[in-house]
Amino acid sequence: MSIESLLLSIAMAIAAGLVGSFAVMKRMSLAADPLSHVALPGIGIALALHISPVFGAVSMLVFGALLVWAVEERGGATTESVIGVVFSAALAIGSIMTTGEDLIEALFGGAGALSLSEKIFGLAVASAIVVFIVVFRNSLIIMMVSPDIARTAGIKVRRFELLYLESFALTIALGLRYLGVLLMGALIIIPAATAKRLAHDLKGMMWISVVLSVTSTILGTAIAVHLHGQTGPVIVLVATALFLLSLLPQRRVSTVRVGSARGGKHA
Amino acid sequence: MEEIKAATRAENALDVTHLSVHYETTRVLTDLSFTVARGSALAIIGPNGAGKTVLLKTLIGSLPFTGTVRWATGVRIGYVPQKLDIERDIPITGIDFLTAREAVAHKPPHDISSALTLVGMPLQVAQRPIGTMSGGQFQRLLVAFALVADPNVLLLDEPTAGVDEPGQEQLNQLVRRLQKSQSLTVLFISHDLSVVYKYADNVLCLSSERAWFGAPSTILTPESLRQVYGGEVSYHIHEH
Prior knowledge:
Strand content of chain B: 25-35%
Distance between the termini of chain A: 53 Å
Largest sheet of chain B: 6 strands, mixed
Strand order of the largest sheet of chain B: 6-7-8-4-9-10
Structural class of chain B: alpha/beta
Radius of gyration of chain A: 19 Å
Oligomer: heterodimer
Mean pLDDT of chain B: 83
Number of helices of chain B: 9
CATH class of the domain at 3-180 in chain A: Mainly Alpha
Largest sheet of chain A: none
Order of helices and strands of chain B: EEEEHEEHHHHEHEHEEHH
Radius of gyration of chain B: 18 Å
C-alpha cells in the first residue's frame, strides 16, 4: 500500500468519525443510510457513459443530499417514508444498471488502484469535511438541540443542514473505492455509536469517534493484507468489535446508576 | 405574503399586524394584531391548542405566515422553548451547550459562569450531560443559554414548566429583575394567571375563535376568562 493511499484512508476515516459523531446524535442515521444507496445508479450511469464511476457516484450523492434536504423542507411525517422509498428505488435501479463485478465492487469496495487525480480529489474533499465539522461544531450542536433556538442565535439553519448532508454524502463517496457504499455507511455510524457510549462531552465524543474510526481503518487494512482478504469487511468487523468492547464498562456504570435513574426524556 | 421588517418606530420592540398562520390545512392564528413596547412584558395566555407556541415560533421566523411581523432594529432575541426532545445518552454537557452559544455570538457575550449564577445553577450540574438533567435543571440551562448572548428581548414558552415551586418563583423574579435592570422586553406564555397578573404589562389572550389584547385588568375579568376557557377560572390577584 502506497503512502498516499494510507494518507487518504486515514483522512477518510477522520472525516467519517467526525461526520458520524453528529449523525448518531442527530438521529439522522435513518435518512443517511438510504442516501448512501444513491451512489449505485450513479455508478451505473457512469459505466454506461464510459466515464469515471467515482465521478458518477459523487454526482449522484451530491444530488441525493440535495433531494433529502428539499424533502425535509416540507416536513411532516411523510419525509422519512419519501426518503426511504426514493432511495430504495435508486438502489434497485442501480442494481439493474450495474452488474456482476462492478456491483460487488460498488457495494463492498474493490481492489482497483486509485488514479492520482482521484487521490488528490479525495484528500481535498476529506480536508474540507474535517474543517467544516470542526469549525462549525458549535452551530451544529445548537441546531441539533433545537433548530428554533439556533435560528434565534442567528444560525442559518437550512444552509447548515444542507452543508451537513453534503458532508455526509461526500464522506460516503470517499469510502466508495475503499469500502463500498454499504460498508462506508457502517464506518460512519459504528465508531460514532461507540463514542456516544463512552464520551461524556462533545470534545470527548468527537475525539473518541475519530480515534476509533482511524484505528478500525488501519488495523482492518493490516489484518486484511495479512490474510490476503478484502479490506472493507475487515475494517467494519474491527469497528464492530470495538463497539462490542464498549458495552462492557458501560454495564458496570449503569448498575451503579440504577438507583438514580430517571425518565428517558424531558417532559 | 410575509414580511419581517425592522421598525422605524423606536418605542415598540415588536409590531404585529394581521398575522395569520396555517399549519398544513388548519388555520391556527387568524388576523392577529398587537404591539409590544420596549422594556414591557407581554403575557400570552389561552387554552391548550390556541396557538400560543405557534405564535412564538412564528415570531422567531420558524414558521411561514401572512401579515407583518416587525421587530425593532437591533433586537437580540433569547428564546426559551417549552420542551425539547433530548436523547438521554447524548454526550453533550450543559457547558458544551453554553460554550457553543458563546462561540456563535456576534456581540461580546456574558460569561458562562455569570449566566449560570443568574439562573441559580451550580457548575457541577452544568457539567453533566444535558440528557441526564431533570426537567427543571434543563429549563434553567435554556434560560442561561438565552442570557449568554446578552439578549434585549426574551421569548419564554412556559419557562417554569417542570420547575419546582421555589425554582419557579426564582425564575419569575430573575426575569423580572433582568427586565428592569437591562430594560428587557419580555414575551412569555403562562398558564399561571396570578403570575400573569403580577408580571405582565399587557396580556394577549388567544382562543380558537378570537384574540383579546390589553392590560391585565381589562383582559383578566371573570367574564372574559369564562368565554375563553369555557368554565370557571379562579386565580389569586396579588394586590400591591
